[in-house]
Design goal:
Aminopeptidase, Glucose Oxidase, domain 1, 2 domains, two-stranded antiparallel sheet
Length: 456
């Protein structure tokens, strides 16, 4: 059960968001073009790097840090979409929204309770609500390899293996959950055992709940008392009460029409959390490259896509790819996908759930590209830990980038990672650095420029 089981969208609305500011910007660009012959090489380089300034990138990261979270269709995500649309329109792009419906759950109460204790949980989407009364049953602690029969009728606290978890249907979580569900529990609480011990929110299938019973997630640190209660099989109650259903959200598509083949740049917009290090690098690099491309690639067909519903196994990206709004693979000279967390902060891990942030970028990040791009990627990303050793697409890809390759878009490349605070509410501004974003974005720009010159 995955994102490919999407129901049809509710339609597409094209909205061009051009006004006086955009026209003024276009006029300014024209004036710059007219005077470019008078500039020295040093001045040209300065202009080329101007969209990638530390100040601009920091402002974009701070915009994400100001929102509560980026869940699809919610207030924070809508605010970031509006900000992005305004920026792209001011650069001269035609901006459109591809509308469709996304699942949601607005919690009133999400808690696991037992005599003398309570833990706040996160309802696993798509949510099977319990109503205000909740599900009452014995708490039972369980891990893969235990007898699932002992979970019958119980609230199963399932200990996941240690990992930087991110997806419900990824092997470490899926195997444990499927085995536990075979025991027919009344409800399940997944204990997301990760580096910090905090609750890790998991991406979910788009079409329907994973199972007919309520499922929640809880970190072993906030869930320590609940785990002890489950060892003793005390009576408990899981409450997942709130408003649920589907609501509108949209992919944002910006285009500057030109002759010849297109450049496509894509990045997700949504996340369970504020996601400053998860979404922020892609968000800031996306806007910087969009600003650079308007002047550096004159006359080129440019398509910039910021997608919704990433939390639902890349549903927004798939919705765009499977629509007639996506260009044909043979009409694209390069696709860049700016995925999650590629400029997250490195940490030392020591002891149980003890981590210490470092002043360096997390090297546990990946650069993946079409096989014929690998020499160019290695050259342009040289010296950037983790990215300096690109992987060919023939060895496999993940996330939205895998979907891009699967649809036949080549050459293409992308960056992605699950940084240490990936899918945690503590993923705030301190978990990244504008300089790391800038370095990766400039290297990506250089790859685009090289490929554009090859397709003159």
């Amino acid at each position: 059960m995955g994102a490919r089981e999407m129901t049809p969208g509710v339609g597409f609305s094209r909205r061009v968001v051009l006004g006086a500011a955009a026209l003024a910007t276009i006029g300014a660009c024209a004036r710059r073009d007219a005077s470019s012959a008078l500039k020295t090489p040093a001045e040209e380089t300065l202009d080329d790097d101007a969209p990638f300034s530390i100040e601009a990138i920091k402002a974009d990261l701070l915009a994400l840090d100001a929102v509560e979270h980026l869940r699809s269709g919610d207030a924070g995500e809508r605010a970031i979409s509006a900000r992005t649309a305004g920026r792209l329109a001011a650069l001269g792009y035609d901006v459109a929204e591809q509308l469709f419906e996304v699942p949601y759950f607005t919690a009133k109460t999400s808690a696991l309770r037992w005599e003398g204790g309570e833990a706040e949980v996160f309802a696993q989407h798509i949510v099977t609500p319990t109503g205000p009364a909740g599900v009452e049953a014995p708490l039972r602690l369980w891990r893969l390899g235990d007898d699932p029969a002992r979970l019958a009728g119980a609230i199963a606290l399932v200990l996941l293996p240690y990992a930087r978890h991110s997806q419900l249907i990824a092997k470490p979580s899926r195997e444990s959950l499927d085995a536990a569900l075979a025991g027919k529990p009344a409800a399940v609480v997944l204990i997301t055992n990760g580096p910090t011990g905090e609750t890790i929110m998991l991406n979910a299938p788009y079409a329907a709940p994973y199972a007919p019973v309520p499922i929640a997630v809880l970190g072993p640190k906030p869930g320590a008392a609940a785990i002890e209660a489950a060892r003793l099989s005390v009576a408990g109650r899981l409450i997942l009460d709130g408003e649920s259903g589907r609501r509108p959200s949209h992919n944002l598509i910006a285009r500057r029409t030109g002759p010849g083949k297109s450049l496509v740049v894509s990045t997700p917009r949504t996340a369970w959390t504020p996601a400053v290090a998860e979404r922020g690098p892609g968000f800031a690099a996306f806007l910087a490259i969009a600003a650079w491309a308007t002047g550096a690639l004159p006359g080129r067909d440019l398509i910039f896509v910021q997608t919704t519903a990433h939390e639902y196994d890349n549903a927004g990206g798939l919705h765009f790819l499977e629509s007639d709004l996506a260009p044909k693979p043979e009409d694209v000279f390069l696709w860049l996908h700016l995925g999650a967390g590629f400029a997250g902060r490195a940490h030392h891990e020591f002891g149980e759930f003890a981590v210490n942030p470092l002043s360096s970028v997390d090297a546990q990040r990946f650069l993946i590209g079409s096989d014929d791009l690998i020499p160019l990627l290695a050259r342009e990303f040289a010296g950037q830990p983790g990215l300096e050793n690109p992987y060919p697409e023939s060895r496999g890809a993940v996330g939205e980038l895998a979907e891009v390759f699967a649809k036949g878009y080549k050459p293409a490349f992308g960056m992605l990672a699950a940084h240490l605070r990936h899918h945690l509410m503590s993923d705030r501004i301190a978990m990244t650095d504008p300089e790391w974003v800038r370095m990766a974005a400039i290297a990506a720009r250089n790859v685009i420029r090289a490929r554009a010159e090859a397709f003159r």
